[in-house]
Amino acid sequence: MLYDFFENNALKTELLKKIYLLIQEKGPISKAELIEETKLNISTLSRMLDSFMENDLIKESGIMTNNGVGRPRILYEINASYNYIIGVDISRTQTKVILLDLNLSVLKKETFLMTSIHTPELVLTKIVNIIKGFLEEFKFSTDKLIGIGIGAVGPIDYKKGVIIQADSFPTKSWTNVKIIEFLKKELPVRMLINSGANTAVYGEYYYLEKPKNNIVYFNNGISLRCSAMINGVLVNNVIGDTDSYGHIIIDYEGELCSCGRRGCLTNYISLGSLLNKVKEKLSQGADSILLDWVQGDITKLSVDHVVEGMRNNDDIVKETVLKSTPYLGIGMANIVNSLHPDKVIINSPLIVNGSEYLEMINQHARQYIFKNRRDKVQISQGKLKSDAASIGAAIAVFESIFKEDNVFPTKYVHL
Taking CA atoms, which of 50, 210, 253, 351 is between 20 and 30 Å from 11? Predict the structure, then answer.
């Protein structure tokens, strides 16, 4: 196992970790390039590379020549299949399980929808079965599995590995769910858990070009979830409830929210609220393709129909969704003005068909972002899109090998 090598090696462990990560990030890479990066002498570096090679952690990956000038250089890269990592995303609409190698490349993913029958026991059993299927298909045992990273709907006690109470799930039984305890009975490996918004921002931050920027992540689905990395530190509240950002009040005399207050942001932008607004318009006689999909029975409409309505450019759905963009833009600007990120990433199933939805959010947000920050903030969908939470959770497991604190993530700013 990768972490056993670093824990038991007699060579300087921190330096070994640095060299391994350089090869993982920049490989194929030559010994000369590694010396340039680390400033090590050739004998010290050679001993460390020999140790990696003897333990099958890295491998030669070709020869680099310089147009016939000088000696050819051997290139090194990590053995990506030496170990594997699992990433899991448990959301209100679906659960996703992915398998990654040590290059953090996705080898396979499986997704299943969350319905009224999906109790915690059923979902966790399906996750275990999917992972065991990965092990069988790719022919490795749990001894080769570094660990499992989990991003889930909060609030979460990430130290105890428990979902405290997940609101708005199709089934109401998601309270005090001991996820880690359940999974470890079947898969006795390292496990880390946090809010899906936190794992998503962690994943997106990992792939930012250096120097790393401050980043805020928005996920607008059944509710608005938000998280941020500021100066390399995850901004998080104590119990990991990233849904709280959706309860920023933007109209104190506005719509009544499920939290008991009025004018919460989520009431104007979330898929659930947009579904209710679409239903109201249809009940008043508006025409829509959605009615054909449910044979005129408005009660059968779901948030999935809203998303598909956007994909099909349905006038009622599109009008309703785009009318929500000023509210999300204002909420986004409030958070940007408070945290001063350089990059804002938004993920939502509503980002379809040329991203008019995203463009309008961008326009409205920039109206309210402070003028001295307006041109410095980049707003986009991000690199990982809908895979961000699961990939970020897996990355957290990988990085836990190289950091002293193995609880995800290593540092917090508590709000």
Answer: 210
